[in-house]
Amino acid sequence: MSSPAANSRFTGVDFYDADRLLSEEERAIRDTVRTWVDDNLMPIIGDCYIEGRFPKELIGGMAELGFFGANLPEEYGCAGLNNVAYGLIMQELERGDSGVRSFASVQGALVMYPIFAFGSEEQKQQWLPRLASGKEIGCFGLTEPDFGSNPGGLVTTARQSDAGWVLNGTKMWITNGSQATVAIVWAKVGDVNDPTSIRGFIVPTTTPGFTAKDQKGKLSLRASDTSELHLQDVLVPSDAILPNSSGIKSPLMCLTQARYGIAWGAIGAAMACYDEALRYAVNRVMFDRPIGQTQIQQVRLADMLTEITKAQLLTLQLGRLKDDHLLTPQQVSLAKRNNVNMATDCAREARRLLGANGILAEYHSMRHMANLESVYTYEGTHDMHSLILGEKITGLSAF
Amino acid sequence: MSPILCVLEQRDGTLRRVSHEVVAAGRQVADGMNTTVDAVVFGQGNIEGLEALGASGADRVLVASHHAFHRYSPEGQTATLAGLAPSYSTVLFAATATGKDLAPRVAARLNTSCATEVTDIVVEDGRVVVTRPVYAGRAIQRVRLTASPAVLSIRPNTFPVSHTERPGTAEPIPVPDFTAKVEVVEVKEPAGGALDVGEAAIVVSGGRGLKGPENFSLIEDLADALGQAAVGASRAVVDAGWRDHSAQVGQTGKTVSPGLYVAVGISGAIQHLAGMRTAKVIVAINRDKDAPIFKVADYGIVGDLFEVVPRLTAEVRKLRAEG
Amino acid sequence: MKIAVCLKRVPDTTAKIVIAGDGVSIDPAGVKFVPNPYDEYAIEEAIARKAAAGEGETVVITLGTDASQETIRSALAMGIDRGVLLQTSDHPDPAAVASLLAEELALGEFDLILMGKMAVDDSQHQVGPQVAEQLGMACITAVAHLDIEGGTITAEREIEGAVEVVRCGLPAVITCDKGLNTPRLPALKGIMAAKKKPLDIKPVTAGQGSFEVLSLTLPPDRPPGRIVGEGPDAVPELVRLLRTEAKAI
Question: Left (φ > 0), alpha (ψ -120 to 50) or beta: where does C123 sit?
């Protein structure tokens, strides 16, 4: 069967008329990204995924439309959108591919945001417009080979010298690492056991001693660059430090921003899988009727739609809370944990509904299924978010 | 009742085939109103084929000659028609590129609207009632035209041309003075003078199933074997740059109504169907038996088009050779 | 250069058509309304020409109900400078639409008036030339290629198997066809800026018109067809059926 997406554009999933809860601008923004994804990403993403290639030729188009750091202020060259609009951008990008959405998450929430939140005015003026326009590509160096779920234990050091700061350490699982022109590196300026001594540093990747190397052999997020960073006596000027960064809570604040976008993104992936499964089910005939007319497939589709609808309404409220400055990191944890988990279920069930065709890259569900395993794991694993919620609810840490 | 006026088209001194369809449609209206049919044609010098218009239903053929009329001349033809039209009850055009440009200008002079691309006409209580497709063919509208004269354009390839033994007379008519604001400076013909999908009696269309532009030779061979056939294309292959936009059949391309439409390697997306679903006979060739095209096709073959199409071409050639 | 664009709000071409209770119109429930795709070529052309000229003004004019304000804003989001809504809940026929547009356009002394060659809902293909006639302006329809040099327009349009090259001066009405350009997506900043751009609302009433819509119906279903067979071996039977049954060859 020819791929159903060939001639058809994505029209969304909206069983509870959540569109009524969006403003005209939010809908228009969502529709613009949706159309951009249909026109530019969908035709190439299957091949990119198989080739293990991030489609960097799309960066310019995304930048021009304002996808990067979209919720940061206009004075820095950004679109100045509210957080619901930002979330909708992430949703629509991930409807295309989690790896491409990861690029935008890193650029916006993990590179532009820390500069905005912790940087000096000079740093903001120097870097934010260039990151918004895609002239600079950033990556976020927090995770290390021995420090994933426990980022506070990182051992990259920054030692002050006459000439500036000298950074030493290794980072791993860094999205965009190998193509970044600038890295936000988190390092300890004091005792290596003291998480309060963590600070952020703006490190141009051409600085001597800085190398980035792609990690090979991935079976997930293949249309994304995932790299190791090595810093060997990397000397950066004194003003490379993000002056308002202070302890582990600074990178965690960045992660909260990214996790917020990921909660939306996961809905996009789930919608893509549901939409594909539904179109297939009504067209694919077996035993003289469409498989969509069988009870087992209808239960699958009903379950997917239910989870998507719940996630949509939950996440919209999360966005409104964020816009009203009432958001807590634990609220984000709940949404990220729920939405990614339900999306992995949707992807898997859609893959199964598609039968043999579902293993081909021409269809999207298995690609989403594989990608979502990374999304389940990164930005706080599902299990870590369980403990974040548990601690918040009970007041007792089970870490 | 005032007579009916049919506006004809000629190209390079030869009457275009669609002109007979306009006359046939005009005849239908005239019979409903018990009146006569005049046909008007614009040209410079001799125009071939006018004698046959009587047989198609024209009582008189009016020839407006002017040196500017060897090509389309909007102001001149509008001025001529604006002078004639008040003497008629109905003015009919063909919904060709030219007709769709000229008819509204004439309608504007008459302070009325034109009903564009009409597929059927009846006369009820002395008034013209037309049927026309709307919403890209997804709905049909019936409209009573209340102005006098009523102005409309007919969809090509829709009104059957009759052949009667009616004589027609041809006479020249004067052309009023006019100032040309718009001038056709050149008409560029494509190499080989390919038949246009909108006009051909048979259309063979290719889609993404052909896998590459070079494989359109299969479609061209089949079109050649069928004779009087144009080569069409789905939107996907036009967007991919394999064929020119003028060949695109579908919602954002052309709507065609041929006697036979052969869809090769086309899945049958709604947007494509909108452009060809009124063809009299639809044949689909596709390797996927669940492809939506088979739901509208009268006849289908499920199979590899690279095997089926050459075989079809060969069988058609054999049939033609047998006469 | 002063450029006007006429824009219509129409049902999306993928919308399912349901006939309304009145039997002459469609039921708008659940239908997504969008800017007429052919008018989007006009919007893009206006924005691009103004940018190329480095000066000028672009205006979008729409006839419709208040719901059309969103449609106007989508053009403003793409980059048009300001909008005018000729507000009415009437459904005028093309000549009446042209009259109302012409009255508004006459106020603006535009060098160029652009719109799509037709709207995808009623497919009438005539508002452009009607507006031009009312304003006494030159008009070229269904343009797929446009050059403007020193006050002269050279346009190309397709005419069944050939291309007509047409010339006229300014001011002119040009109706746009696919192939003229690729309409841009609005930048996200542009979407936010749209609501700050001027949008004048002018109530109007349409004239009586000369069209009386008697009915709107769904087209008859084609009778079901059949799969003749599989593979090249099914071809002889297909040819036989086309010849004897369908009489198509």
Answer: left
pLDDT at position C8 is 98
Chain C interface disruption, residue of B11, B228, B299, B307, most C CBs within 10 A: B299
Residue A137 neighbours by CB under 8 Å, 6+ apart: A59, A107, A131, A176, A179, A180, A181, A182
Report the C-alpha gap between A129 and B317 in whole angstroms. 66
Q: pTM of the full predicted structure?
A: 0.90
Within 10 angstroms of residue A384's Cβ, the number of other Cβ atoms is: 17
Query: Chain C within 8 Å of A64 (Cβ-Cβ)?
Result: yes
Q: What is the CATH number of domain A138-240?
A: 2.40.110.10
Residue of A nearest to C194 (CA): A25
Name the token pair of A125: 């003026």
Tell whether the model's pLDDT for residue B65 goes beyond 60.
Answer: yes
Question: Considering the domain B202-322, what is its CATH architecture?
Answer: 3-Layer(aba) Sandwich (3.40)
CA distance A158 to A166: 5
- The whole-angstrom separation of Cα B109 and Cα A240 is 73
> pLDDT for C26-47, tens place per residue?
999 989 999 999 999 999 999 9
Per-residue confidence (pLDDT) for residue A1, from 0 to 100: 36
Hey, where are the domains in chain A? 18-132, 138-240, 249-394
ipTM (interface pTM):
0.93
pLDDT by residue (tens digit) across B233-270?
999 899 888 998 889 998 778 889 899 999 999 998 87
Residue B146 CB burial class (10 angstroms; 0-12, 13-18, ≥19)? middle
At A326, which amino acid appears?
L
Q: Residue B261 and residue B223: Cα distance in Å, rounded?
A: 11
Give the lowest-confidence range in A127-141, A339-353, B59-73, B250-264.
B250-264
Chain-centroid distance, C-alpha A299: 30
Residues A4, A9, A10, A15: what is their CA dihedral angle, to the nearest 10 degrees? Answer: -90
Q: Which fold has domain A249-394?
A: Butyryl-CoA Dehydrogenase, subunit A; domain 3 (1.20.140)
User: Residues near C80 by Cβ (< 8 Å), separated by ≥ 6?
Assistant: C5, C43, C46, C47, C58, C59, C60, C197
SS3 call for A47 = helix
Q: What does A262-293 look like in DSSP terms, one character per residue?
A: HHHHHHHHHHHHHHHHHHHHHH-EETTEEGGG
Q: What is the CATH number of domain A18-132?
A: 1.10.540.10
Task: Give the C window 45-64 contacts with B, CB below 8 Å.
Answer: none
**Contact flag B290-A6 (C-beta cutoff 8 Å):** no
**CATH code assigned to B4-173:** 3.40.50.620
User: What does the pLDDT look like over B267-296, one tens digit per residue?
Assistant: 988 778 888 988 989 999 999 888 889 988
Record: contact B187-C165, CB cut-off 8 A: yes
Query: What subunits touch chain B, counting only 3 or more CB pairs under 8 A?
Result: A, C
Is the distance from CB of A68 to CB of A104 less than 8 angstroms?
yes
> By CA distance, what is C77's nearest residue in A?
A28
Site of tokens 């996440």: A315
Whole-number pLDDT of residue A7: 47
Which of A6, A99, A93, A17 lies closest to A52 in space, CA to CA? Answer: A99
The CATH number given to C2-203 is: 3.40.50.620
Distance separating alpha carbons of residues A381 and A389, to the nearest angstrom: 13
Q: What span, in angstroms and rounded, lies between the C-alpha atoms of B290 and A108?
A: 43
Asked if B292's CB is within 8 angstroms of A1's CB, the reply is: no
- Domains B4-173 and B202-322 agree in fold: yes
The reported pLDDT for the residue numbered C14 is 82
Q: What are phi and psi of B232, to 5 degrees?
A: -110, 175
* Domain ranges (residues) in chain B: 4-173, 202-322
Per-residue pLDDT of B117-162, as tens digits, reads: 999 999 999 999 999 999 988 899 999 999 999 999 999 888 988 8
